[in-house]
Amino acid sequence: MIENKIRKSTVTSSVPAPSELGLAPSFGFGDRIGLATPGHIAAVRNSGTQIAPIFAQQSIREMTRTSRDPRGVMGDAMNALGGAKWESSHGADADHLKTPDDVNRTAEAGFTFFTIDPSDHVDQKADDYSEAQLRELFEQVRDSAEWFDDYRGKSVKLSTGAEINFDEVTLLRAAVKYGVAIREAITLANHIRHVQTEAGRDFEIELSVDETDQPTTLAEHYIIAEQCLKAGMKLVSLAPRFIGELEKGVDYIGDVAALEASLHDHAAIAEELGPYKLSLHSGSDKISMYPALARATRGRFHVKTAGTSYLEALRVAAVCEPELFREICDYSRQRYNTDRATYHVHAELETVPAPADLSSDQQLQDVYLERWETVRDGLGFTEAGRQILHCAFGSVLTHDRLGPALRSCLTSHPDAYSDILAEHFGRHLSALQQGL
After folding, report:
1. Does residue 98 have a known ligand-binding role?
2. For binding a divalent metal cation, which residues are annotated in this chain's numbering (predicted)?
3. How confident is the model over 328-360, as pLDDT tens digits?
4. Is residue 221 marked as binding?
């Protein structure tokens, strides 16, 4: 049985297995190294928050880049929970699933929160097509958008006062952009239901449509969610692409007031069709927008973080083994232009001083881990150094020497890592709590 496989890899069988978290506000602590969970636990305990935690969380993409697997991710988290004598409920997020094999591997390891990512089937250029192009392309996806005529001419008035008008061009664009993606998401959700039902285990599903260049419109959100729910998807949360910029490793870039107004509209859709939670991906360090997210959703939110725990691991190296940190900064710069390909980031190497140009260890830490301001295209940006380090995590962790050296640094200074994470995530949880 799956449960027995989990317990064999843990310190104690008294730790509750991962479970559904439902509509409770929740927070995902990604751990790319396998040593961060003690700090995550400390953050939750110190904050006194009622926000439900997900400790075992990693995407298939991250596992590939770090040479880990679902069993290892689950085992590392459960071992830490056993060591901390954790007795409360917690979830386990199999993130950014794209194939049935992804589902099978994570289900066997005991994950209960399955994040479907149909981004490979989204037409990223749809927002730029002319009406004539949309009509031509629609003929190619018509079979994947059987819902098209059901929405034609329809309008929906949300509780916020916003009105969604499903005119023909809006529907054509939604069908071309998301028609195939919706179909594929439903197919994968059906596979998740089959696998988990056969194993006798509960599950919940999050749908990710956030990895697009343009924000998700209200009409797109409505169609995606309604079609998935009508197909029987056990949808607990949905991650739209919100307005503004949600880049890796930095705070929210944009007008928080405008964002909050938009969040209220998206939350109104989630309430009307579900209810289900709104999910914030790339949620690391987006502290300025957390209160708005919590307020707009009335506590029905999920926040997903991952890279920030890796960056805080590098802070341990910066403090305890500064020469190692300097090497990691150098190597991350070498890898950045290659590794950034799958991320939306603004950092450019020429705007961030090279380690050789920074004489002191404190300067190096300030530039690469703090809010060092750089300029690109005449605009000021902060924390560009963090993005360079963030994107190269896989290259560093799988490097023959740097990866083991970083792990050795963290295992030699476990209390430092735990304390740094507890303080860092304490700020995250406190900001979310402000809006509850």
Report:
1. no
2. 96, 248, 281
3. 999 999 999 999 998 889 899 998 999 999 989
4. no
